[in-house]
Amino acid sequence: MIENKRIYLKQLAVTDITDAYINWLNDPEVNRFLSVRGGAQDRQMVEKYVASYDGDDNRLLLGIFDKASRKHIGNITFSSINRRSGVGAIGIAIGDKSFWGKGYGSEALQAAVDLAFAVLKLRRVEAGINAENAASISLFNKAGFVEEGRLKEREKFGDRYVDFLWFGLLKDGKRQ
Ligand SMILES: CC(C)(COP(=O)(O)OP(=O)(O)OC[C@H]1O[C@@H](n2cnc3c(N)ncnc32)[C@H](O)[C@@H]1OP(=O)(O)O)[C@@H](O)C(=O)NCCC(=O)NCCS
C-alpha cells in the first residue's frame, strides 16, 4: 500500500468490486477515453478483469481509495512492465466524477510514479494519451511527463481517427 495526502493505492481484489465501480466503468463521460468505452461492463466481466491481474508479473492493478471515506474512487494500471529495460506503461482513471478537478488524480499519479521507481524499480514510466483528452494531458504534464511523440490518427474515436500522444518520465528526471 502507498499513500499520499488524501488517497491511498492498494492492489485491487475481486472483493473490492462494488456496484459504484461497475457503474463508473459504464459512465460514458468516464470511459470516453478508456478501452472499456462502448461495451457494457457487468459484474462478471469486471471480476474476470480484476482476477486477470493475479500472479501477472507484467501488470499491476491498483485501486485509488479516498482516505476520508475509504471509498474506491478510481484505478491505476501498470501494463507491459519490462523488468529488463525497467519500463512500464501507466494508466489512470478517477471514476467517481465528484472527485474530478480537485487534485485527486495528481495525488494518485504521483503516488503511483513513486511506487514505480521505488518499489517496482522501474527507470522509465510511459503513457499513451488520446490527443483530445485535455484533462489527462494536463495531469501528466503536471507530474513531469514529457510528450515524446505523436502517432498520427492512431485511435478510432467515434467515427473519426485522432492522434495518440506518447508521454514518458525518466527516474533521474532527465529531460528528453
Ligand atoms: C484524467 C483524470 C484522471 C484527471 O483527474 P483529476 O483528479 O480530475 O485531475 P486533477 O484535479 O489532479 O488535475 C490535474 C490537472 O489537470 C487539469 N484538468 C483537470 N480536468 C481538466 C479538464 N477537464 N480539462 C483541462 N484540464 C483539466 C487540472 O486543472 C490540473 O492542472 P492544474 O493543476 O495545472 O490546474 C480524470 O479526468 C479522469 O479520470 N478522466 C477519465 C478517465 C481518463 O480519461 N483517464 C486517462 C486516460 S489516459
Briefly summarize what is shown.
With 176 residues, the protein is of the alpha+beta class. It is built from 5 helices and 8 strands; from the N terminus they run ββαααβββαβαββ. Strands 1-2-3-4-5-6-8-7 form an 8-stranded mixed beta sheet, with helices on one face.
- Bound ligands, each once: coenzyme A
Q: Which regions contain 5 or more consecutive residues with pLDDT less than 50?
A: none
Let me know the number of strands. 8
Give the helix proportion (percent range): 25-40%
Total helix count?
Answer: 5
The rough form would be described as globular
Q: CATH homologous superfamily of the domain at 2-122, by name?
A: Gcn5-related N-acetyltransferase (GNAT)
Strand order of the largest sheet: 1-2-3-4-5-6-8-7
Quote the distance from N terminus to C terminus.
Answer: 31 Å
Q: From the 3D coordinates, which CATH architecture of the domain at 2-122 would you assign?
A: 3-Layer(aba) Sandwich
Largest sheet: 8 strands, mixed
Tell me the strand percentage band. Answer: 35-45%
Rg, alpha carbons: 16 Å
The level 1 CATH classification of the domain at 2-122 is Alpha Beta
